[in-house]
Amino acid sequence: MPLTVELVTAERVVRVEQGVDVLIAPGSEGQMAILPHHAALMTTLEPGELIMRRAGQEDSFTVTGGFLEIRSDRVTILADAAEPFEEIDIARAEEARRRAEERIRRYRDQADRDVDLARAQASLQRALLRLRVADQRRRRTTGRPQV
User: Fold this and answer.
1) pLDDT confidence bin for 147, thresholds 50/70/90
2) Which of 24, 57, 80, 125 is the most buried (most CB within 10 A)?
């Protein structure tokens, strides 16, 4: 019996997918593959790529952390934020990366700007995650890195 995977954030249900043959998730202890009949488990997620494979098709998502629970053949992912690969705007992610790097350079020398520096670093991490997932997905589907 294949997996049923539910990917949700506080804002929305990102995807509910039945018939998943394997789920690959960025677990707190490293990347993990979940197959049908997996033992019950609850773990935290790290920022990274979440992949659902079924019937020769693959769907890819970015997740910025959260929790994953396995019960029977049902996987529930409560993500801090999640985005399907198809929704990643590469030009926007590149611009966000550039702005975050610029803010980090400005705030590094200002000790009283710790909060702004932390926000800029978090923004940079989100942008880099989107770009990494987009590049990995492109490599898997075309065999070539993103230009």
Assistant:
1) very low
2) 24
Neighbouring C-beta atoms of residue 40, cutoff 10 Å:
8
Token pair 């994953």 is found at 68
Among the listed residues 75, 78, 84, the one whose alpha carbon sits nearest the alpha carbon of residue 35: 75
Q: Nearest 5 degrees, angle CA 61-CA 1-CA 47?
A: 20
pLDDT higher at 86 or 138: 86
Residue 72 in contact with residue 109, Cβ under 8 Å?
no
Q: Which letter, b or e, does each residue of 63-100 get, where b requires 16 or more Cβ atoms within 10 Å of its Cβ?
A: bbbbebebeebebbbbbebbbebeebeeeebeebbeeb
For 86, half-sphere exposure in the C-beta direction (CA atoms, 13 angstrom radius) is 4
What's the DSSP call for residue 111?
G
Q: Which residues contact 58 (CB under 8 A, 6 or more apart)?
A: 51, 52, 140
